[in-house]
Each structure stands twice: as structure tokens, then as C-alpha cells.
UniProtKB/TrEMBL annotation:
Pfam families: TTL (PF03133). GO terms for molecular function: ATP binding; ligase activity. The keyword Protease does not apply. InterPro entries: TTL/TTLL_fam. Keywords: ATP-binding, Ligase, Nucleotide-binding. The keyword Transit peptide does not apply. This is Tubulin polyglutamylase TTLL2.
Length: 605
């Protein structure tokens, strides 16, 4: 296996069948290696990427150096019927002034009577001319099974569907309908941390919009999977060009040419994303090793109101055209940066017995208690440090002597390690649960196969508060990968990581701006959009306070609208104060490439 940065082993990715080729390409370019099931131990990987959902056991068994590309239970927004139900519930709780961004929808057959009432209401109001409706199978994607109708006699379905009000006045470019694919990364659901990608895709229909031809899917649907088979896909279409995609940057140029209040549009889209994610955030089990990339489909109508059409799980990462190449490669690279692997993550397989240790994913925010105490393997070379030599005969028993270790020492009798060493070991073995040690020595002078780890039994509950105390004591892990399969019987146990009091785990990949607890406002082209001020930061910590978060979103939008109306009338300080003044957390504007802070934008308007 090649040696990676700083002499460490390269990071390893594991792709499940159906995972996008682009992910493999990007990771290989970054010097990662692909996991080989036949040759590598099961936990010997850093990133597991699946197009489909993970199993519960995958979440339960993740190690501190591992990340998964899905959070559990996000189906509440990624299935059309669940999304409709959840948004209706939020509208009931928080009112339709905010939750008014998704077209009225009915889940059929269950909501048939309600749909009939609404349908009749529209017919009565407009003479015999009703509204337009779109019918979509709830668990299909890529435009499959979708049709548009005006008359209820045309509504025929043989599986659960969602019937949604059809947005019949979309904004058109040269007569063509389009929607936006917005990429959103949820770094964490607890605390809720949302990043939006500045670049994205505009997806066009390939025939001009025509309400007189509801059956023509090339005119009404913007899915690439449909339009690339259309007769005009390769035609050079007026203003649009060939194919059916633009980058978001190109779209922004178009908006600027129209002299649109871009800031307000992007902020509305931000709000849609935040308010949608708030619908499920409290129900997502705490899963600190997970990240999720969603694709939000947004349609803009002729009044520049953005509408949420759906949220995609595992958005397509295929490369159909140059816009895809421009957007998606950077997207995956920035997503990997957002995962923030640190040096400590290169040291896989260092301490836990996978079968015994349970990450507290499914305990949500109630109690974080390892179901079974984790076990720790202490690499021999750790015990070679002078402090370890001192500790023989003290409290932690290294239950197996081992073969000549990687540090070149001869076989030893069973060893004892001090509290201090135990915590040093935890520092290493917990990897991501603790702050990484500041100085390692990556001497890789030993055969990976020659190293056998030492076993350490602990009797003192590990206190997260002491992590700094022991932070500097690791001088030379010098560890290398152990490839042989471990036997469960040969591990000693440590007490639970988390005591009785709930303390959220701290992962170095969950990096925060120093001393503030604030996630970085920008990673590559990912822009932090939630939390966006001190209040939302507080609202997202501990137990998510949805009401507070929703109110802040509302306030922000109102302020933005007001600041637009009062152009130049309000005094700078007044606006600045209303937007949070010196608040470093203030939401960044997501639209522009180099976004100024929101208050800056308002001050200029
Ligand atoms: P799928 O998961 O099959 O892609 P979508 O909900 O994204 O289903 O719908 C596919 C396409 O249909 C969208 O990209 C959009 O062009 C169009 N569409 C969907 N819902 C509406 C709607 N309510 N109003 C107008 N167009 C819609």
C-alpha cells in the first residue's frame, strides 16, 4: 500500500455497487486507495459511499475514523409523499406565511376526498377552467411515471402517487422551462449544520413551454434523463444552446441582465432549504460520522418566487455535459474537504473491537451511553515511551505480551500502563472523538504484519473533560496497520466513554472556528447557511429549538425585504444592528461566488 501524506497510510474509500464513478475518480486523484474486500480487514476504510441507504448495523458499527455518506432516516424529506406530509404539518404549526414554498399536494389514494374538494373549488372559481395538476409516483425518480392533467377524468394511477398543483406560470428563458438543482450538504443534524453549494445546475426542458400540449414531456419536465432523449436535445436552441443544462453561474449572469434582486431570491432559496431540513432534524438520530448531500429541485415562477419541487437523495453525479464536469467534480472535492479528515484518521483499526463497541447513533440526544463498553488496543510502541516504562505495575493491565513490536523491542511480559498512558491511547484510538495529538512521529519502519497491539484494561471512566489534559502526551504512536483479523476473545474492556451526563461527542472533523464553537462559514464553495447568527447557533445546540430557528428565518427575510424597500433611507448602523451587528456568524450570502456577509449586502442596497 502506498504511503500517503506525511508518511501516513493513504485514506481508504469503500464504494458500494451503484456508487457514482465520479466519487472514485476524485478520491483516486486525491491519493486515496480503494478498499478491497478480499484483502483488507472489514473496518479498514475511512469513507463508505453508497447510493442507497445504509443498514442500521452500518451506523452502529462506525469507527471514529470512518464516515458514511448518508444520515439515517432522511426519507422524511426525500420521498415525495413524506415530504408533502411533513411540510403540511409544519405549515399547520408555523403558519403558511413561511411554509408556502411547496405546491399544494395530495397523497393519493389517502387524500382523494381532500383533493376532490380542492379540485372542485378551482373549477368553481374559474368557470369550467380548472387548475393544472401534476401526478407523480411517490417512490420513482427521473421523471418516470409523471403526467400533467387538467381534467380529473385523466387522473389514472395504479400505485401510490402525489398529485401536486402544477406551476403553470414558470419563469421561461427564450420560452423554455427550467428548474435549479441546488446541492446541499448537511454536515450534522445535531447540531443542525447546513452548507449550500454555490455552484449548481440549471436544467432545461428541450421544447418550448406549451400548456396546450400537456402530454409533451419535453416541454413540461426538466429532467435530463428525459430530455436527453428528446428530438431537440442536440439542437442549438435560442439563447439556451445545445443540450439542456447551464451552470448556476451562467444563470446568475442571466439574472443580472434582468436587474433582479438576486440577493432576495437566493435568500428565499436558503430559507426553503433550512425550513425543509427543520421538518426532519429533530427526528434524525445523532450520527456524528455521517454527512449527506441532497439535491434540492427549485422551480422559479414568473414572479420570481422559488418553489420546492422535491428533495433528492443521492443526487445524480453522472457526467452528461460540460456543465456537469464544471459543477460536479468541484462539488465532490469540496464535499471531501468538508469531511475534514485529519492525520489521526489515517490510523485505522487502532483500538476498538468492532463487534463490541456501539457508536451511540440511535440514542439520539437523550443519552449517549455506549451500549457495551468499548475495548481498547494499545499499540506496543506506545508503551515504549519513557512514561510507559515507568508505569509498569500500575493500574491498567496489558493482558498480552505480544511479538516483537514495531518499535523493535523484544517480546515483553504483560505490561501495565498508567492512567496517563491510557488516555494517550484513547487520544489515538478514539481518533476522531478527541482532539488529535499535536505531534506524531510517522516512522514507518516496520512491517505491518509484525505489529501486534497490546491490550489494555481500564477501570476509570473516561472523562471527555480531560481530553486536553492528556492532549500532549502522545509522542510517537508509530503505528502501522494490523491486517490480520482480530479475535474478540483477546480484548480487554474499558468503561463507557460517556458518563451519565449527556455530552455531545467532539470530533475533530466536526471542526469549529477556534474558541467559538462556530462551524467554518465556508469550505471550498460550500457556504454555511445554518446556523446563521448567534440565535440560531444557540437554537441548534443541545436540543434543537425549531420555533426559535423558524422565527429567525422569518426575521431575516423580513429584514431583507425591508432593507430593499428602504433603499438608502435607513441609517447604516440601524440596519447593521437589526441584522446582528458585529455578529461573526451572520449568514453568508450563498448566491455570489465570493459572498459578502448579509449585512454588507443590505447596507449596499
Ligand atoms: P422526479 O423525482 O421524477 O424527477 P420531480 O418532482 O422532480 O420528480 O418532477 C420532475 C419534473 O417535473 C421537475 O423537474 C419539473 O420540471 C416538473 N415538475 C414537478 N413538479 C412540478 C410542479 N408542481 N409544477 C411544475 N413542474 C413540476
Amino acid at each position: 500500500m502506498a504511503t500517503g501524506v506525511c508518511g501516513t497510510e493513504p485514506l481508504v474509500f469503500r464504494l458500494h455497487e451503484g456508487a457514482p464513478e465520479l466519487v472514485r475518480e476524485v478520491l483516486l486523484e486525491r491519493g486515496w486507495e480503494e478498499f478491497e474486500e478480499q484483502q483488507q480487514e472489514e473496518g479498514d476504510w475511512n469513507l463508505y459511499w453508497r447510493a442507497a441507504a445504509f443498514r442500521n448495523s452500518d451506523y452502529e458499527n462506525t469507527m471514529p475514523w470512518q464516515r458514511l455518506n448518508h444520515h439515517p432516516k432522511t426519507v422524511g424529506i426525500t420521498r415525495k409523499d413524506w415530504l408533502a406530509r411533513n411540510l403540511r404539518r409544519m405549515r399547520g404549526t408555523f403558519g403558511s406565511a413561511l411554509y408556502n414554498f411547496s405546491p399544494t399536494a395530495f397523497n393519493l389514494p389517502n387524500d382523494y376526498v381532500r383533493f376532490l374538494e380542492e379540485y372542485s373549488k378551482h373549477r368553481l372559481a374559474n368557470g369550467n377552467q380548472g387548475a393544472y395538476w401534476i401526478c407523480k409516483p411517490v417512490d420513482l425518480s427521473r421523471g418516470r411515471g409523471i403526467f400533467i392533467f387538467e381534467d380529473i377524468k385523466d387522473l389514472v394511477y395504479d400505485c401510490p402517487v402525489i398529485v401536486q398543483k402544477y406551476i403553470s406560470n414558470p419563469l421561461l428563458i427564450s420560452g423554455y422551462k427550467f428548474d435549479l438543482r441546488i446541492y446541499v450538504c448537511v454536515k450534522s443534524f445535531s447540531p443542525l449544520t447546513i452548507y449550500m453549494y454555490q455552484e449548481g445546475l440549471v436544467r432545461f426542458a428541450t421544447e418550448k413551454f406549451n400548456l396546450g400540449a400537456l402530454n409533451n414531456l419535453y416541454s413540461h419536465l426538466t429532467n435530463t434523463s428525459i430530455n436527453k432523449f428528446g428530438p431537440f436535445y442536440s439542437t442549438d436552441k435560442e439563447y439556451i444552446g445545445e443540450g439542456c443544462k447551464w451552470t448556476l453561474s451562467k444563470f446568475r449572469c442571466f439574472l443580472q441582465s434582468l436587474r433582479i434582486n438576486e440577493l432576495l431570491l437566493w435568500q428565499k432559496i436558503n430559507n426553503i432549504v433550512t425550513l425543509t431540513l427543520l421538518t426532519i432534524a429533530p427526528s434524525i438520530p445523532s450520527s456524528p460520522n455521517c454527512i449527506e448531500l441532497f439535491g434540492f429541485d427549485i422551480l422559479i415562477d414568473e414572479n420570481f418566487k422559488p418553489w420546492l419541487l422535491e428533495v433528492n437523495y443521492s443526487p445524480a453525479l453522472s457526467m452528461d455535459c460540460s456543465a456537469d464536469v464544471t459543477v460536479k467534480k468541484g462539488l465532490i472535492n469540496d464535499l471531501i474537504d468538508l469531511l475534514n479528515y485529519t492525520e489521526i484518521d489515517h490510523f485505522r483499526q487502532r483500538g476498538y473491537l468492532r463487534q463490541k463497541y456501539r457508536r451511540p447513533c440511535y440514542l439520539g440526544s437523550q443519552i449517549l451511553q455506549a451500549r457495551t463498553p468499548p475495548v481498547l488496543l494499545l499499540p506496543k510502541c506506545l508503551c515504549k515511551t519513557s512514561s510507559c516504562e515507568k508505569c509498569q505495575g500500575q493500574s491498567y493491565l496489558c493482558s498480552r505480551g505480544g511479538s516483537p513490536d514495531s518499535c523493535g523491542t523484544a517480546q515483553r511480559p504483560p505490561q501495565y500502563c498508567s492512567d496517563e498512558n491510557l488516555n494517550c491511547a484513547l487520544q489515538l484510538n478514539l481518533g476522531s472523538s478527541l482532539k488529535p495529538a499535536t505531534h506524531y512521529c510517522h516512522k514507518k519502519t516496520h512491517s505491518p504484519h509484525s505489529q501486534k497491539p497490546k491490550l489494555v484494561e481500564g477501570s476509570r471512566p473516561y472523562d471527555l473533560e480531560s481530553e486536553n489534559e492528556y492532549g500532549s502526551c502522545v509522542s510517537s504512536p508509530g503505528m502501522v496497520k494490523e491486517n490480520s483479523k482480530r479475535k474478540s476473545g483477546s480484548f480487554a474492556k474499558l468503561p463507557p466513554i460517556h458518563g451519565h451526563k449527556y455530552k455531545p461527542p467532539v470530533y475533530p472533523w466536526d471542526y469549529k472556528v477556534k474558541n467559538t464553537g462556530v462551524p467554518p462559514s465556508r469550505v471550498g464553495d460550500f457556504i454555511l447557511t445554518f446556523p446563521f447568527n448567534e440565535v440560531t447557533l444557540r437554537a441548534s445546540q443541545k436540543k434543537l429549538n425549531i420555533k426559535m430557528a423558524v422565527q429567525e428565518v422569518y426575521k431575516l427575510t423580513s429584514q431583507l425585504i425591508a432593507s430593499g424597500r428602504h433603499k438608502g433611507k435607513r441609517r447604516k448602523e440601524e440596519i447593521s444592528r437589526s441584522l446582528g451587528g458585529e455578529d461573526k456568524l451572520e449568514s453568508l450570502l450563498w448566491g455570489p461566488r465570493n459572498p459578502p456577509s448579509l449585512s454588507d449586502c443590505c447596507l449596499k442596497t
